[in-house]
Amino acid sequence: MIKKNKTCALYIAFLNICTLCIISFPAIAQEKTKSDILWSDIPKLGKKSYSKEIADKNKPENLLKYSSIIMRINADTGMIYNDNIYRSASGEESDLITFLKPELSIISNFEKHAFNLYAKPDLGIYISDSRNDYLDFNIGGNYRLDISDNDQIDLGTSYAHKHMSIGSFIDDPDNNLKKPVVYDNHQIGMNWNGRANIWHYSFGGIWNAYDYDNTSRQNGTVSIQDDRDYDNYKLQAQIGYEFVPFHEIYVRAVHDIRDYDTRIDSSELYPRDSDGYLVAVGISNKNSSFSSYDYNAYIGYLSQDYDATQLPSVKAVDLYLDSKWQVTEKNLLKAEIMRRVKDSTSDGVSAYLQSKMHLKLTHDYNENISFGGRVSYTNNNFETNKAIENLDRDDDIYELGIWSRHEIYNNTDLKFEYSYLDRDSNSPTASYNTNKFGITLSFKY
Predict the structure, then answer these.
(1) What DSSP letter does each residue of 324-384 carry, written as one string?
(2) Pick from 420, 6, 350, 320: nearest CA to 171
(3) How many CA atoms are closer than 13 Å to the CA of 354, on its beta-carbon side?
(4) Number of neighbours of residue 180 by Cβ within 10 angstroms
């Protein structure tokens, strides 16, 4: 089996190299088009709704289409070299990963409603260590209905089969597994967005169900992952006041319910069910078309209370920023700040508060070449019951990356990327650093 996987990986790598060589030669001239802007896979809380105006403005002319229904076919393929695939503090192991990510989307663009259906497989093959190979997929769709000129409903659903690489769990990594941990994710979302003169309102919710499969370690023992299974319900409401055209201040409330199927490690005496909430005030730019500076920011207070008295609650000031600044015609700057409560299966730990800051700069050198860089800082602060676990873990994660993208010919891009990550933790087994080098060939039709 290992020999077969290695042969398959080398075959994909060979195809990638051959394809790169072939497309480097001039192709028949075609009219250049820009990428379509898709409505997000599922209507997320606080995200902008699908904009027919933007979709029309950026829609490629060479898509397969019938009336107001268009088909989009994308594919990414390439190779990534990772010098520390198991995120180890010492004794690092490297590998070359080949991947193939095709995508099929069917998009409508009717006057009063619209839908998007998609299928996204993701195949990855490791040349040296085949136990890391994976095949993920994500299928789903979403639907927009204009109830009136001022009210709109967004509906969405998806089913995804994914994996967690060996040693990649932040809270409880295990580098001795036989293969990655696989899980299924079901998602259903709904949002109602509307306005009454200068007042804007939004309410809805998202249901997520996660189902993890147990796996085995190399020594034959069972690695329990079923205790990660849970249902997450998020309900949100928001009302805003447009104090000047396209700019609003708003208040938001979110209720976060987490319902676990089993107890920790399937044997502990306490469950991990919890209830949480967020209350916040914010300000945003509601312009339906692109402006030189778009933003959405809020400050609030979040809390996640666990049913078991053994698990400490998480309470903190919440900060959020999602901004995009077109500094010049060729330079785009994006900044993000966010906080999230991420549950943990570590003994005596309820969750960790994840605080992240991210900055990305893109420069369009000319019509065919662009490049950029990104930096980010993340802090994971674990909430620990000292009577059960003495170590109060805290991680600082630093990331940086640079990339360049070249349009070889119409609808075909070649991307080179390098990234570095360093996790500095007071838990000696959690610290590591890694370097990644990647090359990606992208097709868009």
Answers:
(1) EEE-SSSEEEEEEEEEEEEE--STTEEEEEEEEEEEEEEEE-SSSEEEEEEEEEEEEEEEE
(2) 350
(3) 14
(4) 20
Q: What is the pLDDT of residue 351?
A: 96
- DSSP of 103-123, one letter per residue? EEEEEE--SSEEEEEEEEEEE
Distance CA 354, CA 342 (A): 7
Domains parsed from the chain with CATH numbers: 2-444 (2.40.160)
Helix, strand or coil, per DSSP, at residue 132: helix
Long-range contacts of 80-83 (CB under 8 A, 24+ apart): 80/436, 80/437, 80/438, 81/436, 81/437, 81/438, 82/434, 82/435, 82/436, 83/434, 83/435, 83/436
By the 8 A CB rule, do 273 and 256 touch? no
Complete DSSP assignment for 162-206: EEE-TT--SSS--TTBSS-EEEEEEEEEEEEEEEETTEEEEEEEE
Question: What is the overall mean pLDDT for the chain?
Answer: 85
CA distances from 155 to 162, 204, 290, 322 (A): 23, 10, 24, 23
**Residues in CB range of 26: below 8 A, 6 or more apart:** 409
Please tell me which residue, 40 or 15, carries the higher pLDDT value: 15
SS3 226: helix
Say if residues 60 and 444 touch (Cβ distance below 8 Å): yes
What are the backbone angles phi and psi of residue 300, rounded to the nearest 5°? -160, -160
Percent of the chain with pLDDT over 90: 69
Q: How far is it, in rounded angstroms, from Cα 240 to Cα 93?
A: 52
Residue type, 136: D
Quote the CA–CA distance of 297 and 302 in Å, as a whole number.
Answer: 15
Q: Which of 104, 76, 80, 102 is nearest to 19 (CA)?
A: 76
20 Cβ partners below 8 Å, 6+ apart?
A: 414, 439, 441
